[in-house]
Design goal:
Strand content: 15-25%
Strand order of the largest sheet: 5-6-7
Radius of gyration: 14 Å
Helix content: 10-25%
Number of helices: 2
Structural class: alpha+beta
Order of helices and strands: EEHEEEEEH
Distance between the termini: 23 Å
Number of strands: 7
Length: 104
């Protein structure tokens, strides 16, 4: 997914498929938040960065119920895997890790 469907020089997924799966399908977020900057943005099966996220517009992520998140940003050749295994884990800790990585 990071390199458009290629791994070690071998084509695994077609670039068009990766583009389709990581292209935002929501428009201006889902509209669930009072503050529009906090609205959720999504591709097919992946979360997309919102206007206040440090990630590039090409980034995409997927999280789990126990606070785990896979974050991929092809523009920065970056993959972050955050694992907790804790139910009801606050998302703030994950966001702080992402902010720290992008700040570095």
């Amino acid at each position: 997914m990071l390199r458009g469907g290629e791994l070690d020089g071998a084509r695994i997924l077609a670039p068009a498929f990766v583009d389709l799966m990581t292209r935002e399908v929501t428009r201006d977020g889902l509209g669930r938040e009072v503050d529009r900057l906090l609205d959720g943005h999504y591709a097919i099966g992946w979360g997309k960065p919102g206007p206040t996220d440090p990630a590039s517009p090409r980034a995409f992520a997927h999280g789990g119920a126990t606070g785990t998140r896979l974050h991929i940003d092809p523009a920065h050749d970056l993959v972050i895997v955050y694992r907790t295994g804790l139910w009801a884990h606050p998302g703030q800790a994950i966001d702080e890790v992402l902010m720290g990585v992008y700040a570095a």
